[in-house]
Design brief:
By secondary structure, the protein is mainly alpha-helical. The protein has helices spanning about 1-30, 40, 75-85, 95-135, and strands at about 45, 55-60, 65-70, 75, 135-140, 145.
């Protein structure tokens, strides 16, 4: 069961990383214009997973898109594109893409879960067949034991 938990964690982590890559690509394609290329370049993924929690962030904006105003304030034009300003209508590129992923995310996790269980069952079946062919009986259960013929002990 511990191996299954590690397999599951690895499968989910791989899926999250792949989803992050795909989301970055889709967000970049949703940007309506490309004057300097900085806005597209600012879209990135960051894996901040720990031993207990899998987390992959997708971010946009930051140093590449932050400018100083004549009044000396910082202004991130990624936010202006997404939400608009007093003088500019919003041209959303980020949250519209993210919402699509949230809508389909649960099904992707369910599929990954089922695929990992199926792979684990295939591996267990192969191992059981290998042990049976070697004369080793494997009993699986709450108090199951592994026994080998006297010649293999």
């Amino acid at each position: 069961m511990q191996e299954l938990a590690q397999q599951m964690k690895g499968s989910f982590h791989d899926m999250l990383l792949a989803q992050g890559d795909e989301l970055v690509d889709n967000i970049q394609r949703a940007i309506p214009h490309n004057v300097t290329g900085h806005l597209k370049q600012s879209v990135r993924k960051k894996d901040v997973s720990t031993d207990t929690k899998l987390t992959v962030l997708v971010l946009a904006g930051g140093p590449l898109t932050t400018k100083r105003t004549p009044a000396g304030h910082s202004f991130d034009y990624a936010l202006a594109e997404e939400f608009g300003t007093e003088k500019q209508d919003p041209r959303p590129f980020f949250y519209s893409s993210v919402r699509l992923y949230r809508a389909g995310g649960l099904e992707q996790f369910r599929e990954t879960f089922e695929e990992t269980i199926a792979e684990n069952n295939r591996t267990r079946a192969i191992l059981k067949d290998n042990y049976s062919n070697a004369g080793v009986s494997v009993n699986v259960g709450h108090r199951g034991a592994i026994s080998a013929p006297k010649g293999l002990k």
